[in-house]
Design a protein that fits this description.
Number of strands of chain A: 9
Mean pLDDT of chain B: 90
Low-confidence stretches of chain B: none
Strand content of chain B: 25-35%
Radius of gyration of chain A: 22 Å
Distance between the termini of chain B: 63 Å
Number of helices of chain B: 2
Largest sheet of chain B: 6 strands, antiparallel
Low-confidence stretches of chain A: 185-194
Largest sheet of chain A: 5 strands, antiparallel
Distance between the termini of chain A: 69 Å
Shape of chain A: globular
Structural class of chain B: alpha+beta
Oligomer: heterodimer
Order of helices and strands of chain A: HHEEEEEHEHHEEHE
Strand order of the largest sheet of chain A: 1-2-8-4-5
Helix content of chain A: 25-40%
Order of helices and strands of chain B: HEEHEEEEEEEE
Largest interface: A-B, 64 and 62 residues
Structural class of chain A: alpha+beta
Number of helices of chain A: 6
Chain lengths: 194, 192
């Protein structure tokens, strides 16, 4: 009897470990996460406008139907990404997610403070490779470090009334998200400071 | 023989208990890092890189995109202020004021996070659409049949969830109480 009790206690303890491991592993093994759901319908390193959220379109749960939403699925292995999102009339925001949907950064039009939200997205390694002088001249350009090489940029524009949805979608359609093509400036001069 | 049996039993208990606990927490969610004000619950940390492992598991399992902290915060309610589950066949009044925010939206979802079809194609309100009283407070009637004023149709579904999202708001990780964030009251006023 004590042996059976001991077995069950050992099982429960082991189960605690199973539980912790499986909770930590779930984000990696989930096949129906938002990134996977968006993969078939969105372009890589380009802006895709999502259809409006309505009962017939439920790609992801709990989306706000008052917003026009566009997605840029990114892969930074071929270089940093330049993002430009024109600000819509009411409210515009840009959110960054890792491959496993951790919202590591989000900014709205007011905190950006300009008519166009302009950002450079790069990995930490690419950021370290930036020549320092360029970083100084580009002080007004916001540089975001992505913790993962792939992920999602979600751009949202609010339609405060249903009639303004077309306007919100049009402003998102004018946004751009592309890999920086100009050759890296670091080859020009030898860097002495680092 | 007995040792094998005991080992297998221990492993079976471990698998059932461990995976069962994971399934429970991933589907129902946990109270880790929640901010509860009245009937409303938010997880402000879900919009940051400091998200807890349980919320991460729930979010990836459901395929959600959590709202980023620099964007806003989302409060969900599945019951009224008296802990009675929100019933789409009843008349429910959401009234009062909302915390400071540039914009807010109130949206009705079924329990899986899908919008509920209705002839008006009205799935929620934005802060600009709402009709307010002279003191700035509002009253939204959530009901299956049309009501005067701010009517939010339920489609007559049995269980639903309301989500109040605040955009560009000081409410977030540092918010603790109703004083920081006055949330609207939810009351069931009549059931057929």
């Amino acid at each position: 009897m004590t042996r059976l009790l001991f077995t069950i206690i050992a099982g429960v303890l082991l189960g605690g470990i199973v539980h912790l491991v499986s909770v930590l592993a779930l984000p990696r093994i989930a096949t129906q996460d938002a990134y996977s759901r968006l993969t078939p319908t969105t372009k890589l390193n380009a802006v895709t406008l999502l259809p409006p959220t309505d009962p017939a379109y439920t790609l992801m749960p709990f989306m706000d139907p008052a917003f026009a939403v566009a997605v840029c699925r990114y892969d930074l292995t071929s270089g940093p990404i330049k993002l430009a999102v024109p600000v819509s009339q009411a409210y515009t925001s840009v959110s960054f997610y890792t491959r496993n949907e951790v919202a590591y950064y989000a900014i709205n039009d007011r905190s950006a403070g300009k008519k166009v939200i302009e950002l450079d997205l790069m990995t930490e390694a690419q950021h370290n490779e930036l020549p320092e002088d360029e970083e100084v001249t580009a002080a007004d350009r916001l540089i975001i470090d992505s913790p993962t090489a792939t992920g999602l940029i979600v751009m949202k524009a609010l339609a405060p009334e249903p009639g303004l949805m077309a306007q919100a979608e049009a402003s998102l359609a004018a946004s751009s998200c592309k890999v920086q093509t100009e050759p890296p400036a670091k080859q020009e001069a030898p860097r002495l400071r680092r | 023989m007995r040792l094998i049996f005991i080992t297998l039993l221990a492993l079976l208990v471990a698998a059932v208990f461990g995976l069962g606990a994971t399934w429970m927490t991933a589907t129902r969610g946990t109270d880790v890092g929640t901010l509860t004000i009245g009937a409303w619950t938010a997880r402000p940390k879900s919009g940051t890189a400091d998200i807890d492992p349980y919320s991460r598991a729930t979010i990836t399992r459901n395929g959600e995109l959590p709202i980023g902290t620099g964007d806003g915060v989302a409060f969900a309610a599945t019951t009224d202020d008296r802990k009675k589950p929100l019933d789409g066949r009843c008349d429910i009044v959401v009234s009062g004021v909302t915390p400071a925010a540039r914009f807010w939206t109130l949206t009705l979802y079924d329990r899986k996070g899908h919008l509920v079809a209705n002839s008006l194609q009205r799935y929620g309100f934005t802060s600009q659409e709402i009709i307010r009283g002279s003191d700035g407070s509002f009253e939204i009637r959530v009901a299956a049949r049309s009501r005067a004023g701010n009517w939010l149709p339920t489609g007559g579904i049995e269980r639903y969830a309301l989500m109040l999202r605040l955009y560009d708001t000081p409410v977030g990780v540092a918010t603790r109480t109703q004083r920081d964030a006055p949330m609207p009251a939810i009351a069931t006023v009549g059931c057929p």
